[in-house]
């Protein structure tokens, strides 16, 4: 946010006398239109700058600077405690004196409090003081603990836990996270929040609590995280009390809490609203949890399923019966998920695991890309046989992947994607992938290949792949390459591409799915492609083209095949500082001969007129329009209704009026 500052005298809120904001609006004489906003709207803007989520945004500084802009803003800010109540980020006050801390707290008045940040020796005393005085007002408590085990016990158990046994009428979110050391396993002797937390929605505290004593506030939870020291029976008992639960995370790496427990109870209630299930633990623990948690009947609400095993050496070789039960449990959830979200697009990932305490993904799937259209899939190699035996991926048409260190091990899985027509590949293992595709005849219906990380060293291998597919009667139609890498292809490479049936060596901008708002797109971000014959749809059928050309677009001559292929264009919309270069190409190479409407669009700083001294777009456009008349291909309408015509000179307007058959559409009022 950009602010203008005035020289003002600091007035502490304790001495600020109440003022009529409406009268201030009348008294302030300023050309700034923001002064006309009602105080309620200004407050909403100020509150927007206090929202959580961007750690790089110093929300307290923004509030301070905003309060110093003018008298109206200052009175509005200092008179609303809700702004200051959200700014109790502990890290902001690590080196601050007591006077400033108390000033901010006093400005919050009786507003709800958001307390976030890191708990350390420097911040702990003030935090406990605030909680002791204002616990009834705390709405969000999100704390990371940076202390050692000794100070954890001293501060956390000695001072914080007693506070957690008080009524929490305003509390909606509580996260207490441990960054160093082990999570304590001591049980809470009393009912958390004294059983009173009617607004609580998200809960993550590393302590053991009795579900029966806390049943009232458990019933309102939407998000819950439980840690390793909870036994399977305790977890199930807790889940019976959370009918509204949407997000569940279970971190159970303690083997002693799962390996010796066999627990079944058919009366476990279904989690009908579950959207997110994340499990981390030892194999036996995961097996039991997945067996005991019933599948929701309204599974389409489930958006993320993540199961990861520990990486302890002692768990690296579980008994065969555990492996079999694990696979059955996982497949039950995976199959239910995919049946409810038949994916058309899958992003397949292979991850490396580092360190003895790392978790290893067994399965991680997440719905995205417009609802049911696609999902991200991360899995353990042990699940591949079961997945291949199923028909879960028969609907997948687009596969995005980054081959890892062992692509050969994934070959059986690739076979399951037999309906894929579009393949997008990243990474340096593309040679091995092409070898697998040839060896096992993978992706028989493949028509589109996207190579997002072009390495010229491997380009000959890709050419071999394309040639073999064409020879076998399964040619590819479209090859997408990174636009900034296309120039690295040699003439020999392009010559081989020319000879591949179904492909020509025309590097063109992707037009099959134009963005709705092309003005917001960077030209370099639009993929370059080698497409099927230039006289085939969709290019020859396109009648409207919208182009944004920045100051320094890549070589437009390389795009001539595109412009020539777009022979049916009737309506051309252009913006950007490279517009003049495009008009010159249209003049020199007789492009877009069926063009009937030419529309110029102003694009912020790229607005150009014929007096700018940088580009002369209007004169170049006039030259083009006159040339089209003389060659028998006149343009009937020049649309300047969205163009900054204030700089179009009278001379240019006179020349436009003299062009035969041309109508010029100016903005309203011109």
Automatic annotation (TrEMBL):
<protein>
    <recommendedName>
        <fullName>F-box domain-containing protein</fullName>
    </recommendedName>
</protein>
